[in-house]
Amino acid sequence: MKESMAKSCDRISELPDGILESILSSLPMKVALRSSVLSKRWRNLWKYLWIHATTLDFGKEFAKDQTQEQFVNTVNQYLQLHSGNKIEKFLLHFYPGEHYKANVEKWIEFAILRGVEELDLIFCKATEKVAGPNLQLKTLSVIVTDAYAVDIFAPNLKSVHFHGDILYGYDFRNVSALEDVFISADGYEHTEPEHDFIQIFSGVSHIKILTMCIAPPMHIAMLEEYIPDNLPLSLPNLQELQIIIGGQIGEEYLGYTFCFFKHTICPCLEKLFIDLSGSYAPWKPDTAKEAEEPSSCFFYNLQIVKITSFRGSDTEMKMVKFFLDKAIVLESLVLVVASDFHLEKDIDNIKDGDGVASQSENCNVPLRILHDQLLKLPKASTDAQILLFEHWEVDTSLCPKHKRAAYHLDNICCY
Fold it and tell me: Which positions fall inside the F-box domain (predicted)?
């Protein structure tokens, strides 16, 4: 009876190799490796699958419960088994330190020599170089902490995503095919060093899509005060811009935002996304000087402006007024209110006469009243629609190219 049940339970092992390999290919590599202990039938199936694998995932799940030495030895063993000529995607999440830096460089070279098209790297304390005249790489994602510099030389590269510390150097060379860049030091904006964002963006000035944190506008504001000859910044092909501000916007950050548009030439800009999502804190008096709106700044092709985590504060309303006043052909201004937007706040929080939300401790106003305020604002474009959404109303029609991710750098590397 038991023998009959065992045979019945192991019918899956009787399937053809092709089907079993297909099953294993849908599993993480560490899980597929464990299948080798099931029976003789399964012992080497994962090896056949791995030999020609086009996606090599040495990510967080792979690194789990391994020391640095174990991780390095395991990756080396896997790469020795791999004999395929093509890698489409290579993921590596690791803390190499100085001791294993040579291994990391060897692994990246391994992927590059096999024509890797998508490279996803998460490092701690590293200086990384991704280079080669015949590099087929099209997408590069780098997350780093306590790093020094990133050097990219990739003629076929179309997309770069960088998140982490503000580094001493970002070197983009021969990236003529590059179309979109995500560069964010969200949470690290006030850390040293203060590097030259003008130089960084000059190396990718031809891009069409850009996502950035508030650090570049901060840098431009500093240049305006101390080194104005280094301005303006030119992004002549830019069509979509997303600014990640990471929380409520006060006069200081609003001033940085205004300063960016004052000194940045982007005549083709069509879509603008401003992300204010972040932890809410009760409003406190703003000690920064009042943000100065650039009178000579106009947007002649800007059609879409979308602001997420909107709360209707004075500074946010000032920003809305700016875009309505300066965007000549604006079609839609989309505001998605924050998840902590209080619809039951007392309407006495509205300033008398000017129709703007009071920036008191209870700076939120009822949604209906806020909508009425917005409709009364003057517009340079008579066709502009003002659309107000609650946070749970999913609006997938107007989304930026890049999604903001919550990176937890302290827990992603193998120590």
Answer: 9-53
Which spans in 52-186 are helix H?
Answer: 60-63, 68-81, 101-113
Question: Could you tell me if residue 285 is left (phi over 0), alpha (psi between -120 and 50 degrees) or otherwise beta?
Answer: beta
Least confident range of 5-9, 141-145, 300-304, 394-398: 5-9
- C-alpha span between 35 and 51 (Å, rounded): 16
Q: What is the pLDDT of residues 293-314, one digit of tens each?
A: 998 999 999 999 999 999 888 8
- Measured CA to CA in angstroms, residue 161 lies from 48, 51, 282, 344, 391 at distances of 33, 29, 33, 40, 26
What whole-number percentage of the chain has pLDDT above 90?
34
The rounded distance, in Å, linking the Cα atoms of 315 and 290 is 9
Amino acid identity at 179:
E
151 three-class SS: strand
- Contact predicate 338/304, CB 8 Å: no
Dihedral angle over CA of 162, 166, 171, 177, nearest 10: 30
- pLDDT, tens digit (0-9, with 9 covering 90-100), for 358-379: 333 344 457 778 888 898 999 9
pLDDT of residue 251: 92
**What amino acid is encoded at 63 in this protein?**
A
Interior/surface letters 53-63, b for 16+ CB within 10 angstroms, e for the rest = bbebbbbbebb
pTM of the predicted protein model: 0.80
